Amino acid sequence: LSCLHGKFLNDPKLRRLIHSRDYLKTAETVYAPSGKSSSRQLPRLSSPDSEELIQFCSSEWKFRYQRRLVQNEEVTMDLEVDIPQSQVKDMLDQCITSETPDRFPFPIAFSHDLNRLIVLSSILSVRFESISDMEKPVFNYKVQLLERTRGTISGADCSGRTAYSIFSPTSKALALVSRPTTSKNRIQEDRKIQVWSDVAADGDWPNYNFRGETTSIRTKSMFDEDTSPDLFAFHSTDQVLFYIKWNTTNAWRFDEHGKYGNRQ
Amino acid sequence: LLIEDLETSYATLASTSTDHGYILFYHFTSERRNQCKPYDAFRAVLAQMVHRYRAHKDTIDRVSVLLETGSTDASKANDEEILAAISILLTSFSHSILVFDGVDECEEHAEFPELIKDLCVTTTTRVLVLSRPNVEIPIDFQHQSIHLRCSNSLDIKSFLKPKVRGWKQRKFISDETPSELIVDKLVANSEGVFLWARLMSQYLDRRALAPKDRLEAILEPSEFKGLHGIYAKILMALEHGYEKEIAVIQKIFGFNAVALRTISVSELQVAVAIDPGKVTDVTSLIADFGDALPIICGALVEVQSDDSVRFVHASFRDFLATGLPKESMFSFNERSTNIRCSTVCLSYLLYDLPSSPLYQQSRVQDLELLQTLFPFIRYSLLWVDHAALGFRVDDTCSQSERVDTQHKFYTILAKFINAPYTISVWIEAARAHHIIPSLKCLVSLSTAGPSQIDFLSPLHTGKLAVALLEELSADLERLDQEWGYLLDQDPSAIWGPSITAFCKSSFWVTTNATAISSMLPEEAIGTFRESSQQRPILIQSQVSSSGEELGIVLVMPSR
User: Fold this and answer.
1) Most Cβ neighbours (<10 Å): which of A105, B258, B449, B516?
2) Model-level ipTM above the cut of 0.85
3) Do the Cβ atoms of B558 and A20 come within 8 Å?
4) How far is it, in rounded angstroms, from Cα B540 to Cα B4?
């Protein structure tokens, strides 16, 4: 019961015992059954307590990326990458302050050829290189953290509120999509879309730069939000994003030397 | 008739007063073996009362408060709560009448009058208890009891007169003995028990008896004393039948004695015809079975108006179980009879049902049609319960009989387990009847220790079958867990592409057209997943646009 009211954090001995797995387990146990019932008051942690809890739980997270051939299940690549603490903190902060604290939004997106992967705000790029015809190709990889470039672009905000990410068909661009967290609007449905594109020369490791942000809005669908179609789409070859704004469709060219032009 | 008569005379009184009671009743009958306890009657009476008084909100509130403040939180009221609720209602509404019929078939008929006394003593309730006279009435109540011995002798006489006349006409009895004397003798010996008179007349109807034998039975009936006497005599006569006839009677008695629910004529007809391990041919069915049943069984089994079959009286089952010498052909042993019934049910599933979907559009659309096509299908689903019941009770039969019964069961069971099509049909049939196929109760006996289930069987088929049974049981649990929702909606889904591909088992029909394998790293599956603190969590996977590769992302939180 004391756990339910967040008092367990007042005990310094207990604090040392809390790890992220315990948090996940506790959050699932405490919140999951009640999460479905809107009538029940959710227990809340005080602000300092939640900050402290997030600090405890956000270090030493990793993700593992494994690729296998469908034909024979042979593993072609298997690697583990550390996830920056700041990104995990953002994610935990987002979930602990949300209406569904037992759910952990963990946006991940693959490029179509699987050679690029975004986990939270880290982009993993993979290349296979053949040393000789006789040997199997070996892979190299590079990680780019989007938040590092954040400050350089005015208006960009990678604060971890991303709901999901999508690579363009060519993998040269990337959209980070977020939903308004406090929107009570029952009529409209909107998405904030941040676009990042690869500005590296051919042959170099990819380098995604922030290209801008727009909002797509339409009248709320009768259907479930999770199953309704996206409000935007990348062009299959060009650096163009099509998105809906009320009853118009807009095309945004985001490759024009950092400037973006909108056409209806 | 009695209830209707009472209700008619009560109707005027009840309409003039709002707190007037009603006529409430219960009929004990051996065909509902699991509803023959005193509290089954009280539960039924309470249900009638609650229904009758549903408009009296205050009274219903009082009863519901009583149930809610009870120590138990179960949704079903316990015995004490039921008595307390009836007591409240009987106090609130005056001049109720309780009618209990067939108390001689109540399992605890000695305690029953005491319970009624406790319930009604402080109220204005009147109680009518009807019973055959073979029940001993507690001494406190003897002064209140009326024996119909004298009152119904005229009825018994009227019943017997045409019978005696018929016997005389057919020369079953010599003309020298006056009919009046024969009727009077029989009426006197019946001691007011109509059933005795009926069974006696059936006995005397037997063609194998000489006129002299009949007269002896009528005039010197010491061996026919009471119901047990007449049962013994009829059974003795049945023992002289053909071997085949005796086997049929044994099956009929066996099924009736251990039936887990009321068995219908058509079900029993098939059950009797089944020769375990063989296909049951239509020509094996006894013609006009319903009409033939009382004749075959010497009137000891009767067919009810709802087409169900039952013993002529509950005491006959007890007589078969305890009143006969062990060597009697009809002596009934609970363990072996249950195992035999299970064998018959299994044989039906294995040999008499098609090895293909039951619910193919062109053939079967609903349960009723399924029942018409396969009359024994519903009862055959009880094979697990019969087997579990059989192995649960202590055995008192001889070693050779025990080995023989169990060997037959294990042989059929081993065949059943190795017949994927039959198991698929069983699953489909069970789901169609809203039963979840499970072997838990049987498997729990084998794990409980050697005293519960033994493997007596000359070819060791027992051990083998039970070992496989455990595996099948686990697979059935998995099936229910993963696909129960689909089978609930569509029982034939057991043959469909989803279950045959994704829930493979060596026991039921699966498809070879698909192969399912987990692409997850070993650390994320199996027992490791359940226990390890280092367990990775699968977040997402995706197939490359070329379709050649699969990318899997797992997250490993800190510790």
Assistant:
1) B258
2) no
3) yes
4) 71
